[in-house]
Structure formats: structure tokens, C-alpha cells
Amino acid sequence: VRGRSASRLLRDAGASSRIEAVVIIAVTTILLVRLYLYSTGYPQVGGATLHIAHSLWGGLLMIVALCGVFTYLGRSPYAFGIIAGGIGFGLFLDEIGEFLTKTNDYFYRPSVAIMYVVVLLMLLVNRAVHGLRPPSAREDLANAASTAVDGLMRGLTPSEREGALDR
After folding, report:
1. DSSP codes of every residue in 112-164
2. Hey, which end of the chain has fewer CB within 10 Å, N or C?
3. Torsion sign (Cα): 142, 146, 149, 155
4. What digits encode the pLDDT tens for the residues 57-82?
5. Are 97 and 123 in contact (CB under 8 A)?
6. Cα(31)–Cα(27) distance, rounded to whole angstroms?
């Protein structure tokens, strides 16, 4: 039964942990990129006139992650989406200083603080969306159905089956 006040957006029970995983991978990517660039003397890819920024690779990885998650059914594509999307977001976010300054300054001092705020906001919004209220009956039913669909494709572990039945 569809009520007028019923939300059309139903929360995925596993989304919060997947979002946190994307953030962890993004932060790890930023740290690894900065370590690599520091240890190699900040090389530039592209020669004398071009600079192929790693934010371009980040954008490409984010769109590949989205296409993978949108293209395939079930939860199996989530691991790929988390890894590719997290790395892509980290590569993109790492160059925030270049986006904010007229001189395309990768070393813009507030960059780290801006990255920190972006990551913190993502985690706070994630917590607000997924943690402020328990799942509704409609969300529980939709999540159980999603688990059943995934089970049709690859089978269910006993804990997945029990979780779906509990919902």
C-alpha cells in the first residue's frame, strides 16, 4: 500500500558500511599518492606543455565504478564499485588545491583541511541518513527482497538468509 507521505527513497541496509569503505579507500589513496609524489620528487606526467592530472584518472575511475554498479544486478558489483570509486574519489580529492586556486597550486596549504572537511561531511551525512532513524517496514521488506534477488543469482549464506528473514 502506498501512502502519500511514504518516502519514495528506501535506504539500503548495507549502504552505510559501503560508504565508509569508500571513504577509507579514498583517504588511503590520498596518503599513498602524496607519499609516492613526495618520494619521487613530484614528477609530472605529460611532458613540457601538458600535465595529465591524476584527478582525470580519478574521474574516470568514479564513472567506471558507477557504470559497474548500475550495469550489473546484485551485490557482487559493490566490491568493485567501492574499490574503483574510493580510489577515484581519492585521486580526485587529492588535487583540490589545483581546483581552488588561480595558479593551480597542488601545494595550496588549506588543501589538507579542505579534504578533511569533505571527508568529515561525507561521514556525518552518511551517519545522518543511516543512523538517525531505524529502517521502516517498507525498507526492511525492500532489503529482504534485494537479498532474495541476490540469493537467486549466487546463493545465500546462512547468515544472509537469516538476516533477510529477520527483516
Report:
1. HHHHHHHHHHHHHHHHHHHHSSPPPHHHHHHHHHHHHHHHHHH---HHHHHHH
2. N
3. negative
4. 999 999 999 999 999 988 889 999 99
5. no
6. 6
